[in-house]
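Thread: Modeling a multi-component assembly for a lab meeting

Hi all, long-time lurker, first post. My supervisor asked me to bring a structural picture of a complex we are working on to next week's group meeting, and I have zero experience with this. I have the sequence lines for every component (1088 residues in total). Could someone generate the structure of the whole assembly? Inputs are pasted exactly as I received them:
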Amino acid sequence: MNESMGLPTHDADHDRDDASEAALLNAFGYPEPVWQRFVDAPRAGRFDASTPGVVSGRAGTPAARSVLSLQMQFDEHGRVVDARFRAYGCPSSIAVGAWIAEWSLGRSTDDMTGLSASTLRRELEIPEDRAHCALMGEDALRDLLNRYREKLT
Amino acid sequence: MNESMGLPTHDADHDRDDASEAALLNAFGYPEPVWQRFVDAPRAGRFDASTPGVVSGRAGTPAARSVLSLQMQFDEHGRVVDARFRAYGCPSSIAVGAWIAEWSLGRSTDDMTGLSASTLRRELEIPEDRAHCALMGEDALRDLLNRYREKLT
Amino acid sequence: MTTAAHPPIYLDYAASTPLDRRVLDAMLPLMVEDGLHANPASSHGPGFRARAAVEKARAQVAALIGAEPGEIIWTSGATESNNLAIKGALEFRGLTQAHVVTSRTEHKCVLDTCRHLETRGVRVTYLKPGALGLVTPEQVIDALTPDTALVSLMWVNNEIGTVHEIERLAPLLRERGVLFHVDAAQAAGRVAIDLSQVPVDLMSLSAHKAYGPKGIGALFVRRRPRARLAPQIHGGGHEQGMRSGTLAPHQIVGMGAAFEILQREGAAEAQRLAALRDRLWAGLQSLPQLHRNGDPMRSAPHVLNVSFEGVEGESLRASLPDLAVSSGSACSSATQEPSYVLRALGRDDELANASLRFSVGRRSTEAEIDAAAARVCQQVRRLREISALWD
Amino acid sequence: MTTAAHPPIYLDYAASTPLDRRVLDAMLPLMVEDGLHANPASSHGPGFRARAAVEKARAQVAALIGAEPGEIIWTSGATESNNLAIKGALEFRGLTQAHVVTSRTEHKCVLDTCRHLETRGVRVTYLKPGALGLVTPEQVIDALTPDTALVSLMWVNNEIGTVHEIERLAPLLRERGVLFHVDAAQAAGRVAIDLSQVPVDLMSLSAHKAYGPKGIGALFVRRRPRARLAPQIHGGGHEQGMRSGTLAPHQIVGMGAAFEILQREGAAEAQRLAALRDRLWAGLQSLPQLHRNGDPMRSAPHVLNVSFEGVEGESLRASLPDLAVSSGSACSSATQEPSYVLRALGRDDELANASLRFSVGRRSTEAEIDAAAARVCQQVRRLREISALWD
Ligand SMILES: Cc1ncc(COP(=O)(O)O)c(C=O)c1O
Ligand SMILES: Cc1ncc(COP(=O)(O)O)c(C=O)c1O
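Re: Modeling a multi-component assembly
Sure thing. I ran the full set together rather than chain by chain. Output:
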């Protein structure tokens, strides 16, 4: 699998055949911010192993049916220049990954340290019974930031 | 109440208005010989008290919801010249009364002594669960014949 | 006119009603091939649409009786509702030492359920109504014991139409902490019911007594304070775990539509029916020796029950093939036993047996009532003339 | 094409089927205003006509399964039938010391009923099926104890389509004098059933799995030798005293018509469905890492159950809004828990959760199957590409 993966991105260049247009129907009533990111899955995937300055973070377990993996590429000033996520889990987990990847662009590790599950829930309108997806996002980002600091030292 | 009572008789002189024609519908599926006698009730009623040569017989109880009363008018040779019945009870009991009254015409007490419930059931196609109606017919006739004999002695 | 071509005059609306055309129209979209045929428990678009139809109907049923939608549990009819209410409440509480108060004139399904509970150790008091069929609140209160877990009393009696004083009894039972179940199968749409004001805990309803489809009913289960039930049909946990089994949206929508019509038209209809009932009673007055069963001062609008002296019941019924009327309740008329309800009122066997229940409904007309009265008078006269007991 | 305007492709016939147009046509005469609206228990002309319609349908249902009409008891569906069969048989016999054998892959309503009986002192053995979902006759026989009162085993599993060897098991149980109940909700019309040859004692049926209406079902209760049941819904003593409540002729006639169609067309239809099911399976083969659940050698024609590695179940379902399919059974899909049936087969939680049950039916077409397969392949690929677990 390569970096771009031919996945739909948020500029929606995926082919408009009947079937994929049909996927736009939010039959289960997910919150719109979750649904759009689930359908488009912008920045899904991972960097090529040779990409410089990439730090990864991960949270969740297969047994809990939620695994989120984040990758961010940092520039020399410690700012995110590009990001990717991969998620195995419900639409909310996928949306959390997509949201963090998008949000991270241009931010420093300091900027990102404050991101909490409650912010994620508010931004994505994640309901109580899916709070664990937001927690997983917080955990994966913290893991990534820890690794970044480990790398620095 | 007088002898003729204006009741329908077997030559069916009752008025043919809607309602009485409707009564011909045997909705509950009674055996045809029962049904016709129930509807027409030939010889229902009783003789005027002044009628000579009349003997009565009776069987059944109100509590059992079956009472049959027979009247026969005998000539000097001991033959029935006319007969009446009255019945309180189900259609089968009414049919039994009508059948006996009809059947008795022209018969002597000896002719009538043999009449059994099983004959009544066969002639009227009375089913097992209505056997008691036939028995009541047998009893009422026996009562009448006993009274006839009592009268003679 | 030959009777084969003409259906009889239907005066048996208390046994069952025809589907209102508007109800059928509401049901059809759920029955046509491209309709809402999914299982309402399914998690997909068609399932959600079926579920939405079910929930709309739930709100319609709730609205008629002043309840919340979440207080309506779908069942297969009032028979099942009565079973679920009584057995469910008792089982939830634990059967041992429990006591139930009910009346002798309840529907068979209540009495049979109580008798079954007796075999499992529950004690049951069957109150005897007064001569007019009324069990008073005072009688009920007097029958309570410290162990009384449930009172079950019907709102409207199906055979004689007597309307019990549920509004007066309910608060007395609530004060005493005794659960109150009401069989309202005959009452819905015929008498005003507002459970937001009347603290009944459990109430049984049936669609087919109210121009909805047969085979669907509901049980009202109060939420505040919560009435708790052990389920009687176990399974996937539908209906808040109280009643499992795939829901039947076409049936449910039919019940909803029927109850919605009752809410709009019930009061006016009740007036019209009461007038027809009174017209029928007046039309029978040319016959001597009639006895009206039930309480004329507390009578549901649709029922008139009359005993005819001097005629035998089976012959009376056989003489009226062009009238669809009932003797006793539908359930007991097959066995042709004298009505236990009339006997509980003190009628002797012969009179109980020689009685007819006329029940009028949405399609009854004055002309039908007049024809029926004439027909009954004619045939009662005829049978009395044949009768060995009538002079 | 916008999806709002087009209903999804319906591949959930095992959850419920649409009413066949011919079934609706049979039902309508009982639903129109001048139709057969009387209570079939009423003793008058209209009641007799309604009763006749009910009895005709009883014969139609009996005919499909090689039974006598008098062996068919109407219920509100297979959920109720299963409750009545299991609780009814056990209660009739007396619960103390009784033992029941069933399987872990029964429908929830059987399992829940058994769990309820356990609270009342009955011992229950839940047999674990093999990896393909089959419980063998030998397993059942080995599980019998001298106290075993009843074996309950489904003919066709609703989630994975596995067909149990009922024909082989039934005589073994008869020899041993153990009552045998079979849940045939998914089997009727899809596999051949001839109870004149197979000594099953009790068998549950549902109309809505077979193009009949929802809310009506039946229980076969063998007469020779007689299977005896304690009623679970008490009342007027309808249905030979086994199930009280006003019968719903329109529903019953619908079930009769549906079963009559199955008798004529079921065998040919089963062939067609099996071909569609196989076509769907073939169409999914472009995806690696698929697992077919159930026994391909003993599979009902209408069910295909597949687990997809590397995708999460909820996202998979959310990605397929234009397919009406089921994950697990309808009843469990609301809770979104991994199917207990698949777990009983040994599937781990993740695979059990990432599975879809496709079920084809009378109106399924090859074009629909091809579109569905393409859609699933596309979405599974998409989710795998997003997945953190897939490389
Ligand atoms: C008072 C009463 N309760 C219960 C029932 C039973 O209702 P269903 O026919 O819906 O089972 C009836 C009618 O049969 C009734 O009149
Ligand atoms: C095998 C099986 N048994 C029982 C049932 C329950 O049947 P019903 O929906 O008629 O209550 C179903 C379907 O839900 C089923 O598939």
